[in-house]
Amino acid sequence: MPDYIATPVVVHWAFRTIRDVIPIDLDRAAARRFLAARHLLAPPRSLPAGAASVMAVVDRLGSLQFDPLEVAGRNHDLVLAARIAGYRREAIDDLLYGSRLLYETYNKGLSIVPTRELPLYRITWDQNRAEHDGGTFDEHAPLVEELLDRIRRDGPLAATDVEPRAAIDWYWRPTNQVRAILEALAEAGILALARRDGNRRVYDLTERLFPADLLAKRPPLHEQRRHKLLSRFRAHGLLGRSGSAELWLGTVAARRSAADPDRPTRGELIDELVEDGALHPVAVEGVRGPRYVVDADLALLESAAGVRPAPRGRGAEPALPAVAFLAPLDPLVWDRDLLRRLYDFDYVWEVYVPEAKRRWGYYVLPLLYGDRLVGRIEPRIDRRAGILRVLDVWWEAAFDPLVEPAFADALTDALVAHARFGGVTRIALPRTARHRGLADGIRARLGPRGTIRA
Q1: Is 64 helix (H, G, I), strand (E, B) or coil?
Q2: What is the largest CA-CA distance in the chain?
Q3: Do β-strands 365-369 and 291-294 pair in parallel, antiparallel, or remain unpaired?
Q4: Would the pTM count as exceeding 0.85?
Q5: DSSP 239
Q6: How far is it, in rounded angstroms, from Cα 151 to Cα 203?
Q7: Residue 19 DSSP label
Q8: Cα distance between residue 180 and residue 198, in whole Å
Q9: CA 216, CA 233: separation in Å to the nearest integer?
Q10: d(CA 411, CA 322)
Q11: Residue 176: what are its φ and ψ, rounded to 5°?
């Protein structure tokens, strides 16, 4: 028999085997409290402005998805703005293209990860290199050499710096050969991003952008696969063993491949991470199958479940709940099935849904109030006019914003923070009848014509 000491919430092991692991039990309310705290959203915008806070968020979540669409803000900027007071996009751009403490690579889609973890993400470059070496690089060898020679000789290069060539089939649509080959060279780790000028990508040789000793490190393939899989649990905080395919994009498959019988399955790696103590199983009320928390989150889990007091300072429970607008690819909302079961919230990002089929809108964000998802909001930053426009807001059936005495102030604070993040000075609210009571209350809290007070 294993020698362990159990509490109602967490189990500590003297040694572990898979069959000895006893799941931690959480009710739905405790699970929501835990997720809000471990996502640095209890309360939102609790971190001070600056590079150190950006790194603190990335260190906690491990990986942020990069999406260039900028309607209410780019996805990764929205993730950071929800957690950092006074956040500006320049803070992460400097970390990506100045100090290079962060870099872009493919993890769950295009992602931002700590540069110190580059050796553990080399598998992405190596797999793409193997694919392109037998295909794209051979088929377009003269252009590959032309572009590399030009970068070696003249320095960083964007696709628009080169005369366009005939389009080729490339992923979802035909693309200019120059752009496609530069992308392929970056996917293979031969090039990397020197900077972005808006959405214009400027490339340089990877060896010029990262330290040689970091590029020389090559952890075993198994360790890299473990790290990529663990990054999903780090980012979300309460994933299970299955879920939609996009949750696991870029990691190992759920089933063994006949073409690569030595590659472990996702279940095998999860079991290994549990056995090693990197993950701990959790049973959540109303949620089928085990969920897992990373080892570093056990104290937060105990606090959320009421077993130990919440830590003072950052992450402590606020006196009043606050509002955050969550990015469409925020790690907290990755697992849509968990949102339905834990929050009774059905979220679909409809940016790629044809307009006639949308239930909500083009770029709609989940609205977090305390540890509840109470609605969704469609904000747009109109920098030319200097206005944050709220096109619409939709409330969950069980939530009435006028009944919650602190909600109007909390929503006003979130709107003002988002306007300042976007660099605008006015907020325009919907003038429909169903929003009149709340909108009038918010306007009364703002300056004249929705102008933000200094």
Answers
A1: strand
A2: 71
A3: unpaired
A4: yes
A5: B
A6: 8
A7: G
A8: 18
A9: 27
A10: 8
A11: -50, 130
Contact between residue 131 and residue 124 where contact means Cβ atoms under 8 Å apart: no
| Cross-strand partners of 394 | 376
Q: At what angle do helices 221-236 and 122-133 cross, to 10 degrees?
A: 120
**pLDDT at residue 447, rounded to an integer:** 76
Cβ atoms of 162 and 173 within 8 Å: the answer is no
Q: Are 101 and 214 in contact (CB under 8 A)?
A: no
d(CA 240, CA 282): 9
SS (H, E, C) 312-371: CCCCCCCCCCCEEECCCCCHHHCCHHHHHHHHCCCCCCHHHCCHHHCCCCCCCEEEEECC
Phi, psi (degrees; rounded to nearest 5) at 389 = -100, 125
Residue 170: what pLDDT? Answer: 83
**Cα 215 from Cα 82, distance rounded (Å):** 33
Q: Edge-to-edge strands of the sheet including 279-284?
A: 24-26, 279-284, 291-294
The 3-state DSSP class for residue 277 equals: coil
Each residue's pLDDT tens digit, 111-123 = 999 999 999 999 9
Return the structure tokens found at 378: 């469609």
Q: pLDDT tens digits, residue range 206-229?
A: 999 999 999 999 999 999 999 999
Joined tokens for residue 262: 């030595």
Residue 128 neighbours by CB distance under 10 Å: 19
Local mean pLDDT, 10-residue blocks, the chain (454 residues): 34 38 83 97 97 98 95 97 97 97 96 98 96 92 96 97 88 88 96 94 98 97 97 98 94 85 92 96 94 95 75 56 97 97 95 94 97 97 96 95 93 97 95 89 83 71
Contact 348, 69 (CB under 8 A): no
| d(C-alpha 57, C-alpha 393), whole Å | 28
d(CA 134, CA 126): 13
